[in-house]
Amino acid sequence: MRLDIMTDIETLGTNSDSTIIQLSAIAFNISTGSQTDQFNLIADIEKNEQPLKVTGGTIKWWLETDKELLHKLLSFGAHSSEDILREFHDWLCELEFQGYDLYLWGNGILFDNKMIQHQFEQLDLKYPIFYRNDRDVRTIVDLASHKLGISEKDLKERFNNDALVKHDAFDDVIYQINLVTGCYNILTGNEGSI
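Structure for 3'-5' exoribonuclease, as requested:
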């Protein structure tokens, strides 16, 4: 039985081994947007087992984009980045154990999904997503915007929710679920069903 899971991470860099400071995910129904299981953990980077891996551009980006959110993320975590990954791995494996075929969505499979996979492997954890089951938010948005004949920016604006905090991974997951569900229904001709 298929289970779609939206994920988002906040990091201190853009490389595959960059320190993750927040990891969030929600299982959802792609045609209705209804949500079930949730995962959301923030790291306490002082507890990290490995040295921090940061990129200067990412730190500058955080300070220019939302330094208050960065402060919150760096101040309120409880687990090391490595423990967050271990707990996420356990969460995914529990869903898989329940008989689900997991489809992992990221806002760029070469960022979120690839970073999670790389860091699982660094911790000797098997990536529990079949290679054909990685899914990309950007691709479905591109396809839906072409079908409607509008820009991706205009399409994304349709699903904008001012109550959500941009760059908080959990709120980004909620937004991305709404966006993907909307795009899925546009592409399947069920736009009125959402």
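Residues 62 and 70 are 7 Å apart (CA to CA).
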